[in-house]
Write a structure and sequence with these properties.
- With 541 residues, the protein is an alpha+beta fold.
- The protein has 17 helices and 16 strands.
- Strand 10 and strand 11 form a beta hairpin.
- Helix 1 crosses helix 7, helix 13 packs across helix 16 and helix 16 crosses helix 17.
- It starts with 6 loop residues before the first helix and ends in a 26-residue tail after the last strand.
Length: 541
């Protein structure tokens, strides 16, 4: 996750979605990657200026791995980018600066909103009902050549502004340099602003951003997490930094993989002597986020539910092998001399859970899945990509694997030969050698694979929006791969009819006989096919 939310990786993922769904992803600033896209940056800026002479942009340059405002600076002219040798070892993203932010007390501020990514498969996302607003410490003025260097005016990072003489530590949620988001919303509501619309736009921004990140995460998830792990195997609390524009439109600034959970700040009580002072605002927001995260991802919650069902006489849900082993271990531990203490602790935990406050984390996905599932197109591409990766732990397609994909999905035809597929592979991997989160192995990463499919879709389906072209091609690939899987299964049953077995599954009230899978049946696709497998019409044994 830390690598996924680096500024360059996130910008690439967001750009892919902006190309496919431009109207849905207009909440992320226009971005360029330095140094590789410096020439493109210059050309595009000059082209926009030629078409719109009144455009007077400001740009903000952010080092790829930077944090807490380190290395960030503003420029008016694209030629002012500091093209030093440092850019080769520490690349950066340059973005169009949002010059008309919403101001409170004449100060610029941003929102730190906490988001829980509970699991990838199935995708579960929760958003905190409140967040932190971090304020600049100098009154805001639109950027011009004489104030570009004033970080306390333009950058909202707490780690920077806390060193300003104007920073105000406050015990109140609606005053000071750090306030709750709910206090800002109350203030806006009192002036007639529709708060529900702001929240709706922010939740939409969060879901769309997570959808953009998930395909790459799934590629690395399958390479790192042991196969066969049921349900959630990991989770992450993310810090979304969001800016409200003057027209109240939310803009995504960045996503933090490890947002600070400190609830205190340093205060120099005497020369060289520091004391840590609790921050009620931080405590109110962050304690609730951590508490509710632990409640939501509790690995024993399912077991507690099964125990409660058993006490009520309901049939408990079946345990998997790992849960059965845990249950056996607990039964053995029950004979230990500390068992009474543990039982008492368990009772106290149950009482505390009953008294716990309501969740501050609100589920937004899959709750609103129907509204956003059409955006999960790149996830389907990632499923195709993962299917052909081959060895466990790899994150890049080799040339042979790419040829196999082209052949098995029947993309190759009279207008696109296997030789053309080889040329496409070489061309894209050469141009996109820096794609991917981590250079574990050489080959074609997911972003390059997406680029290849976009190229193929544009060749095959003309005069359609790009996302429709890509969707048609993905449909075509999934259909042919599902047909291939069905054909292989049919051939396997035809070759070894005498080796089919029968599984006997015992139920409380009856015996059920069901044909078992053939031991030599090839495994099906890792990614779910959109279409049903094509039925083979040949006679079955």
């Amino acid at each position: 996750m830390t690598e996924m939310v680096r500024k360059i990786t996130l910008s690439r993922a967001m750009r892919t979605m902006q190309e496919l769904f431009p109207e849905e992803y207009n909440f992320y600033p226009r971005s360029w990657i330095l140094p590789e896209e410096f020439a493109i940056f210059l050309a595009e800026v000059h082209m926009i200026k030629d078409n719109n002479p009144s455009w007077r942009p400001t740009f903000i340059v952010k080092p790829d791995g930077g944090c807490q405002g380190d290395g960030i600076y503003l420029i008016k002219d694209p030629g002012d980018v500091r093209m030093s040798s440092n850019l080769q070892t520490r690349p950066a993203v340059v973005q169009e600066y949002i010059s008309k932010p919403l101001l409170i007390d004449k100060l610029k501020f941003d929102i730190r909103l906490y988001v829980l990514l509970k699991s990838l498969e199935p995708l579960e996302v929760y958003v905190a009902k409140d967040g932190l607003c971090r304020f600049c410490t100098e009154p805001y003025q639109e950027p011009h050549l004489k104030n570009l260097h004033l970080v306390f005016m333009h950058l909202t990072n707490y780690s920077l502004n806390v060193h300003s003489g104007n920073f105000v530590h406050s015990d109140s949620a609606n005053t000071g340099s750090k306030r709750t988001f709910s206090s800002i919303l109350d203030r806006l509501s009192s002036s007639g602003v529709e708060i529900r619309k702001i929240w709706s736009d922010i939740i939409s921004l969060v879901i769309k951003t997570v959808i953009a990140m998930v395909p790459e995460l799934k590629v690395y998830y399958q390479s790192d997490i042991p196969t066969g792990k049921p349900g959630p195997s990991c989770f992450q609390i993310l810090g979304f930094d969001i800016l409200l524009m003057k027209n109240l439109k939310p803009i995504l600034l960045e996503v933090n993989a490890n947002p600070s959970m400190k609830i205190e700040h340093e205060k120099e009580v005497s020369p060289g002597v520091f004391e840590y002072i609790p921050s009620p605002v931080d405590e109110e927001i962050k304690v609730a986020v951590i508490r509710d995260t632990l409640r939501l991802v509790d690995p024993r919650k399912k077991k507690k539910l099964q125990q409660q069902q058993g006490e009520m006489g309901a049939e408990p849900a079946p345990l998997d092998d790992e849960e059965e082993e845990e249950e056996e271990e607990e039964e053995e531990d029950f004979l230990d001399e500390d068992s009474i203490d543990r039982l008492e602790l368990h009772r106290r935990e149950n009482l505390e859970e009953e008294k716990a406050p309501s969740l501050c984390l609100k589920q937004v996905f899959p709750k609103y899945a129907k509204q956003f599932n059409f955006l999960r197109l790149v996830e389907r591409i990632a499923a195709l990509f993962i299917r052909f990766l081959g060895l466990k732990g790899t994150t890049k397609l080799g040339p042979t694997a790419f040829r196999t994909f082209i052949r098995n999905s029947r993309v190759s035809n009279s207008g696109f030969s296997m030789a053309a597929a080889d040329i496409l592979y070489i061309d894209i991997t050469r141009r996109g050698s820096s794609y991917g989160v981590e250079q574990r192995d050489s080959g074609m990463g997911l972003q390059a694979f997406v680029e290849a499919l976009c190229f193929l879709a544009q060749r095959r389906y003309k005069s359609l929006p790009l996302h429709e072209q890509v969707e048609l091609l993905v449909d075509f690939c999934e259909y042919n791969l599902a047909a291939l899987d069905e054909k292989r299964q049919t051939c396997g049953r035809a070759l070894f009819p005498e080796r089919r077995t029968t599984l006997v599954t015992c139920h409380p009230d009856r015996l059920q006989l069901s044909p078992g899978p053939h031991p030599h049946t090839p495994s099906s696709s890792r990614g779910p096919a959109t279409h049903k497998p094509v039925e083979d019409q040949s006679p079955r044994p």
